[in-house]
Automatic annotation (TrEMBL):
Membrane-protein topology: Single-pass membrane protein
Protein name per Swiss-Prot or TrEMBL: Protein HflC
Top-level taxonomy: Bacteria, Pseudomonadati, Pseudomonadota, Gammaproteobacteria, Alteromonadales
Molecular function GO terms recorded: peptidase activity
A Pfam family matched in the record: Band_7
The species this protein was found in: Pseudidiomarina donghaiensis
GO-annotated cellular components: membrane
Length: 294
């Protein structure tokens, strides 16, 4: 009898623990009975258990706990094609959460998050491809990005409802060109910059030659003007000197001739060892002869 009572107590304890389940904060739970989600008898809506202590039928009902928090889907960058048939490498992320726990459980093989994210990735990617395919690269990078993300969010939200998922946000973090395209663009840009640099250098050389020729012409004109002015001044000086000489000669021709002869003697005998070959009766010795005679 005691053994039977003990067995009953153990069975009661096991049944009690099997009929109690706890839902943690940040979770929601659904109950599955014979492979079907438990629904409310009146409304027919799936029964979703909030955080707290709850009861279920032991061994018949199975509790499935699901994460109700916001989640971020940050996949690998993918390749998209624009309306110009140009490839872009786009890095995106998606904010999402479970909106219909029963639908999510049934469409993701028992609430498998990896499978849910794979399905969500395909749906969001399909919406993004449609949006990128309707725009050019210039439109995407110059001001259409916000509109593109908004339209992609609408498309992703509509298609994700089939999974019991609510898409909160779709963001395009980074847009890059493929490596091979980037290299060709960089090479073209480098060639264009080199062509512009060569054009600037050519224009610089042309301007330098123009300035140099202009300066040379100005220098030539300045030198010619200086030479002309110097010749004029020299001519004026010679004329004034000739006038002075003429005036002096007209006042006393003999004295002037005497002074000029003395200057000639001084220059001729200045070194002291000069040799002059002249005729004895030359006019050069005119005043020397007179001095000797006197």
């Amino acid at each position: 009898m005691k053994n039977f009572v003990a067995v009953l107590v153990i069975v009661a304890v096991v049944l009690g623990f099997s009929s109690i389940f706890v839902v943690k904060e940040g979770q929601r739970a659904i109950v599955v009975q014979f492979g079907k989600v438990l629904r409310d008898a009146e409304t027919g809506e799936p029964v979703v258990y909030t955080p707290g202590l709850h009861f279920k039928l032991p061994f018949i009902e199975d509790v499935k706990r699901l994460d109700a928090r916001f989640k971020t889907l940050d996949g690998n960058p993918d390749r998209f094609v624009t309306s110009e048939k140009k490839d872009l490498i786009v890095d995106t992320y998606v904010k999402w959460r479970i909106s219909d726990f029963a639908t999510y459980y049934l469409s993701t093989n028992g609430g498998n998050q990896a499978q849910a994210e794979a399905l969500l990735t395909r749906r969001v990617s399909s919406g993004l491809r449609a949006e990128f395919g309707s725009r050019t690269i210039k439109e995407i990078v110059s001001g259409e990005r916000d509109n593109l993300m908004r339209e992609a969010l609408i498309r992703g939200a509509d298609s994700a409802q089939e999974l019991g998922i609510e898409v909160i946000d779709v963001r395009v973090m980074q847009i890059n060109l493929p490596t091979e395209v980037s290299q060709s663009i960089f090479q073209r840009m480098r060639a264009e910059r080199q062509a512009v640099a060569m054009e600037h250098r050519s224009e610089g050389r042309e301007q330098a030659e123009f300035l140099r020729a202009d300066v040379d012409a100005r220098v030539t004109v300045m030198l010619a003007d200086a030479e002309r002015e110097s010749r004029e001044l020299r001519g004026q000086g010679d004329a004034e000197a000739a006038g002075i000489y003429a005036n002096a000669y007209s006042q006393d021709a003999e004295f002037f001739s005497f002074i000029r002869s003395l200057q000639a003697y001084e220059k001729s005998f200045e070194a002291g060892n000069d040799v002059l070959v002249l005729e004895p009766d030359s006019d050069f010795f005119k005043y020397l002869k007179q001095s000797t005679a006197n």
